[in-house]
Design brief:
alpha/beta, 262 residues, Rossmann fold, 7 strands, globular
């Protein structure tokens, strides 16, 4: 009898856990469609066609915030490359489950599309000016979420102009990064971003690279090359592999071997 009760109790717990997971996924699906009623599911970050066990973009954002909450982390959201406003709008939606008013969003984009490409970044997929959302259109899209303008800061301009050492020091004096989403496609842009974020990293910062597997997955091109060079130049920083998402993206957890231990 005791064994039967234990078995029934275990089955009930599993059933409740499955029900909770289904409800969470349905809620996330509803939220994404409410934000993007006219956008195809894949573009809205809720692609049901992802291979089993592989996250889509929206699920990656949700996982990053769940990781922060589960580890009692405090930090802000940083996004580099905001084309279409879709990823940051997913972040607005998912962060509220855990963080309410306690997170600020720092959004960096040129609003002129990709910069001029150098030799290492040339590929049929990219050309100067691609992936351009105007500042006016971006402001309109963000305003649709209902998030207060006090909760986010937009930094407009190409990275070689905006990602300065002075700005990095100022941010480091104010906050740390909980989630960093890098969606700037190119080696050169990613290289600049990685050097910029050094002062704002903390133990466990979730760093997402949206284009990790672009350039045909080559380790000597694009974001992969920038990451390799960055880690070689900063032996006190380690990127611990975390989760893949879509066909294109990969995330890591920052491990600081010395210094910042928060």
């Amino acid at each position: 009898m005791h064994l039967l009760k234990s078995l029934l109790s275990s089955l009930l717990r599993q059933s409740f856990a499955l029900e909770r997971e289904i409800l969470q996924r349905l809620a996330a699906r509803y939220s994404m469609r409410r934000l993007y009623p006219d956008v195809p599911p894949y573009a809205a970050g809720e692609d049901a066609r992802m291979p089993s066990g592989r996250l889509n973009r929206g699920e990656m954002i949700r996982l990053a915030f769940e990781f922060m909450a589960g580890n009692l982390m405090v930090g802000d959201y940083f996004e580099f490359g905001c084309w279409g406003g879709r990823t940051c709008r997913m972040a607005f939606e998912h962060h509220a489950i855990h963080f309410k008013e306690n997170m600020h969003f720092w959004l960096f984009d040129s609003f002129q599309g990709l910069p001029e490409l150098n030799a290492v970044d040339r590929h049929p997929k990219w050309k100067e000016g691609d992936y351009c959302t105007s500042r006016a259109e971006f402001d309109r899209l963000v305003s649709q979420t209902g998030i207060s303008p006090e909760r986010y800061t937009i930094i407009e301009g190409y990275y070689h102009d905006t990602l300065t050492a002075a700005r990095a020091r100022d941010l480091a004096a104010r906050t740390r990064a909980g989630v960093i989403y890098i969606d700037c496609d190119l080696y050169e842009s990613t290289r600049i971003v990685l050097e910029f974020i050094v002062p704002i990293l903390q133990q466990g910062t979730v760093v997402c690279f949206d284009d990790y597997y672009c350039f045909n997955g080559r380790p000597d091109r694009g974001e992969q090359l920038a990451i390799k060079e960055f880690l070689n130049a900063h032996p006190d920083i380690e990127f611990v592999e975390y989760a893949n998402f879509g066909w294109h993206g990969k995330s890591f957890l920052a491990h600081l071997r010395k210094g910042e231990q928060r």
